Amino acid sequence: MARQRSNVLTVLRLRHRQMPLGAKIKRDFFDRSVHKVARELIGATLLVGGTGGVIVELEAYHHTDPASHSYGGLTERNAVMFGPAGVAYVYRSYGIHWCLNFVCEGEGSAAAVLIRALEPVSGIAAMRRRRGVVEERALCSGPGKLCQALGVTHKHNGLALDRAPFELRARTEKPEIVVGPRIGITKAVDEPWRYGLRGSRFLSRPFN
After folding, report:
1. Tally of structural domains, the chain
2. Cβ(62)–Cβ(109) under 8 Å?
3. How many whole angstroms separate alpha carbon 18 and alpha carbon 15?
4. What tens digit of pLDDT does each residue of 134-163 get?
5. Is 190 a member of any domain?
6. Rounded (to 5) percent helix, strand, coil in the chain
7. Is residue 173 situated within a structural domain?
8. Which CATH number goes with the domain that contains 121?
């Protein structure tokens, strides 16, 4: 296991010589404003079982936000959002695709960031096999694609983000971030709560 992790880190460093891996992100990183967390996750590295890449796009949601799952209160489906920060909230969208979120802010705040897109870096062969596509840009350019590529399902719901199979590494330099309205919602459509890495070709959709 130690050798496997070492190999993963080596691959990441080789693929991103200008963006070496930063320190491991701990759960307390998420225990603050969902918008601060969202901005600081752009450029961070997400691995699930050693497979993953650089976060290039995400969206923020809060319990005061009509577009959030937590807006209507606690349910069996969204219970993880109301718990402590730093855990995964995984749900199925339209009964088809899994979506990965990171719970933020204090317990009961019910805020989270939806991970929308990654730049693939590690485990690309496994991603291609799971997705059934070859082009790297198509592997993780959307929340459903991303979960399929990383093998994320409901079994990951509620798991701590600083323990296996998850591994999050902080960015080592501040990227240029672009913001805009979120995608695929019908409420609070004008809120600029979508964050992305400017110029990335791995976004799920370009920013206007």
Report:
1. 1
2. yes
3. 9
4. 999 999 999 999 999 999 999 999 999 999
5. yes
6. 25, 25, 50
7. yes
8. 3.10.300.10
